[in-house]
Known about the structure:
Layout: E1 2-11, H1 14-41, H2 46-60, H3 66-88, E2 104-106, H4 113-118, E3 124-129, E4 132-139, H5 142-153, E5 156-158, E6 162-167, E7 170-179, E8 188-194, E9 198-205, H6 212-216, E10 224-229, H7 232-250, H8 268-274, H9 279-294, E11 299-304, H10 310-314, H11 321-329, H12 332-345, E12 349-353, E13 377-379, E14 385-387, H13 388-398, H14 413-416, H15 419-422, H16 432-444, H17 470-473
Parallel strand pairs: 8-11, 11-12
Antiparallel strand pairs: 1-4, 1-7, 2-6, 3-4, 5-7, 6-7, 8-9, 9-10, 13-14
Helix pairs in contact: 1-3, 2-3, 7-8, 7-11, 9-12
Amino acid sequence: xxxxxxxxxxxxxxxxxxxxxxxxxxxxxxxxxxxxxxxxxxxxxxxxxxxxxxxxxxxxxxxxxxxxxxxxxxxxxxxxxxxxxxxxxxxxxxxxxxxxxxxxxxxxxxxxxxxxxxxxxxxxxxxxxxxxxxxxxxxxxxxxxxxxxxxxxxxxxxxxxxxxxxxxxxxxxxxxxxxxxxxxxxxxxxxxxxxxxxxxxxxxxxxxxxxxxxxxxxxxxxxxxxxxxxxxxxxxxxxxxxxxxxxxxxxxxxxxxxxxxxxxxxxxxxxxxxxxxxxxxxxxxxxxxxxxxxxxxxxxxxxxxxxxxxxxxxxxxxxxxxxxxxxxxxxxxxxxxxxxxxxxxxxxxxxxxxxxxxxxxxxxxxxxxxxxxxxxxxxxxxxxxxxxxxxxxxxxxxxxxxxxxxxxxxxxxxxxxxxxxxxxxxxxxxxxxxxxxxxxxxxxxxxxxxxxxxxxxxxxxxxxxxxxxxxxxxxxx
Length: 477
């Protein structure tokens, strides 16, 4: 099951707003006290903490719903456990975590879940606040109705937990939908390769490469090669310069008597200025747009096996700090995860192949490519030039075919590869005229409306602005 979260703004009157603030203050106090106790006494069990604190808070906050107290204690246990794991790794230097804001979790007993799921067009809900249940109207939007239609058709299920979140004096209800993965017949085969500033894509339309279409028009058998410009590296370099400028401006304010400076990145003024840069939001938006482009039709998606931390292997041997920083800031795993989730949602399947020599071998003759003056363009010993990014995605594509030249040594390519056996031989899957056509395309490729060079900037479908949905999007481990 896939999880998708939708934030919907609440139409809150003045009296209702005061009630929500009161509940939030009680909820926050419970979490802070339980977290401090859990960290000091090394207690991370939610059941044990509930035995210790439930009776106390039931008598102290008599108007608060019992299930809200239980959820606050469980949420405090999660925060304490996460903090203690980070402290063991040496990532924190505080005695206990400072909880500044919380999201209130309402279980099905604390809000009108049964009544909500039975309605065809729900426009309001009931929340158990101080003094009983209160009705509140919702400002529903397109994204909510899209997932609600899936609930009505049986393609999704609404989770029983409701999250109430406050952001810039506005209240949001975060609904969690568990979406069933689609099962569709593949219509295309897509391979993609993630680079610092681009994502290179090869797409083959299966419907037009078989049957009568391929018999009378051979051009549809040629893979469609194009590039999406993400500019992750340029974005990291730009924000690095901005952070350096902020650091230099703040240094005189935090000078020590011995001539040295306080760590500027740890001061409140620096964090206050940096959080408005929106670097994370820009990266996330580009990641989701690329994932939507790759999984726009049901198909087979092929990519490289990146491993757990691909950046560490990429920066080995690189001494320049700026280049290392750009590579570290490129979201390889985040993009791969987003594509995998979007593929399941739209009926596609993702497969991973070995990354061994994908960009160093000619996809036509299987010979080792030679370097040229251009880092992106390599030369085949048999006389033609190949773009290394396009060679990478085509070699990934050939590895999935039944007659692939790597089939016999698939599980142990690094040790059993015999290059001389295949040098000079042509790929039986690619006719010579198609090879010439691909070479011409690589030399004259330009962007178009179907394959833009820069991602378009569009307004988000969800008008919930910056309401945090991360907890609801990620399933618990």
